[in-house]
User: Fold this.
Amino acid sequence: MTFHPNWRAFGKRAGFRSIDQMFDTPKRLGGVVIFGTTGIALNLADKAEDKGIRVLRIRTGD
Assistant:
């Protein structure tokens, strides 16, 4: 599934809103893959872990 931020409607909050939408779907997520350490990526990881969803964090440049 792909969730696209609606930048026009929500401005800077669009990324965070799309994450909330992802968790509001009736289908259960099997896991999420996080690339980077932006606020949006970390927000997604935290919310997934809080819901018991597996999180794979990909770190680059270490």
Observations:
- Residues 6 and 14 are 5 Å apart (CA to CA).
- The mean pLDDT is 88.
